[in-house]
Every structure is written in C-alpha cells, then in structure tokens.
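Q: Structure tokens for this one, please.
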Amino acid sequence: MTILKIEGLRVYFNARGRIVKANNGVDLEIRENEILGLIGETGCGKSILGRAIMRLLSETAGIKGKIVYRGENLLDLSEDRMRQIRGKEIAMMLQNPSTSLNPVLTVGEQITEVYRYHNGVTREEAKKKASNMLELVGIDSKRMREYPHQFSGGMKQRVMIAIGLALNPRILIADEPTTGLDFSMKKQILDLMSELIRSRDMSMLLITHDLEVAKRMCDRIAVMYAGELFEIAPAEKILSEPKHPYTQDLLDSLPRKGLKPIPGASPSLTSPPGGCRFHPRCRYKNDECSEKHPDVIRLKDSHVRCFLYKRGCPTITSNQ
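A: Here is the predicted structure, written as tokens:
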C-alpha cells in the first residue's frame, strides 16, 4: 500500500536570472514498510526532492504538483500543520552530520529537544527517552553530555539516526547517510539503519549516489538524471537487468565492472538538452531522442523513460 505519492512534481529556482529546473515532472510513490532508493549522479536533483517532501526548500523555490501523504497534499498545508508532520510523521537525516548537528548543544540536548517539542513531555522524561535512544543506536548514554566535536564521523551519524527515529516516524528520508565514512563504518551504519527501519515497520527514502549502498539496503530503486526519473524497478531487477541506457552506464562505472566512465558530462539544470536529457551521452540515440521528450513507459515490473522501449524493448548489453 502506498503511504506517500508524488505526482508531477516540478521544483525550480531563479538563480541570477536563470531558471534552475531541479525536479521536472517527478512521479514517485513510497510504499508502506519498504526502503526505496533514489540514485543518480551528484547534482541531479535527488536532495531537492527530499527537501521538497519536507517543505524545507528556500523561499525562492517554485514548486508545482502534489506530494500526498495519507490523504493530505503536503504542498497545501499550513506551516503549523507541516510542523506537526515534520519529524513526527516524516523525518529527515540531512547530509553531513558535522554541519547538521548544533555545535553548541550536547548530543543529549539535541535528542531531548525532539521529545520536548513534539510530545510535550517533562524534561526528565525527555532525557530518559533520549538516553534510551542513544543506547539503541550503540552509543553509551553516559556520552549524552558530550558535544558533536567529541564524536567520530560514524558516531555522529548514529546520533543523526537517533534524532531521525526518536519519534518513530512513518517515513525516514536519509540523504547520503554514509558520505565520508570508511567501508567498515559504512557497513555498520547501513546494517543499523536497516535493522531499525525493518523492526519498526517504517518506510525509508534512501538518497544516494552509491549503487552498492542501494543494493545492500533497498527493496526498489528509482534512477534520477538531470531532474527526471528515468527508471523505477525492484532492486534486484534494476541491478541485474537494467532497462535504461543511463542505468546500465551507472552500473558499468562500478569498480567490479571496470570503472568505465560515462561519456560526456551531466547537463546543466538551467539549460538541459532538448528531447531526452540523456541523449547527448547515449550510445543508442537517434534523431527522435533529440527532437522529442520521452514519456514514462510501464513494463511488467518497472517504469522506464526511453524511446527504445517504444520501438520494441532492445537488449541493453552490459560492458564486461
């Protein structure tokens, strides 16, 4: 069952007189009790989508479409109503805990604040809940009085998980949760997040550029390029039988595939190419790709935005 549905979402900014089309007609759903991965190259609009759901975009942002959560369009809600949802119903772990955590408050105070604001409990009750939450993510509760700078990168990420899950939200949006962590610490954080999400029957939108992270965590994966979704499919399908040429090129860029770079460069979101946004870099392009914008085509177990499937579903070969 769908818990959050995004329909025709367009997010744009005015940057020095130029319009940045960060999200362009995004349709996506997050289902109950699933981990949905959102992957793509840096700058493709993934984080903007997460912030749009939370209504954390700057005042200069323009936004159109719908983000429907349990029957309510989040884009139509008052800020007071949105504050009730933000953190309690839908929580977000922002990129880089070193800058997201308040350096002048102890980690205990920052978790306690969540309970005080949303649940209205006494300070002592909030401290007890915060202490239990730290223990749950593997941090000794005796460290509640310590400040963020006294924690390692992995421990700061655990604090962010504690804050994100403190109120047992229905959905957690995790934006690049393992950035800057070594392999061992990355594995620990991913295993911890997966265990907590699954055990609490929550849903998660995992935003990442790391395909290995998505493979380890996700039930389904959505692939974004230049502000548009190109492919959505079950994780095992998208990683073993990618439909879109861009998805295949992403897989071919992995170390186990030989680190083959994708030709060309990602387009500017202020002046994306006409037609299919990937066509200047695509090995399968033809005239139609540069002249027309492809619609999303629904296949048996996936959605793909590509003219190839209109022409008869080719076999996309992997670079070995």
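A few notes: The chain has a mean pLDDT of 92. Residues 2-218 form a domain with the Rossmann fold fold (CATH 3.40.50.300).
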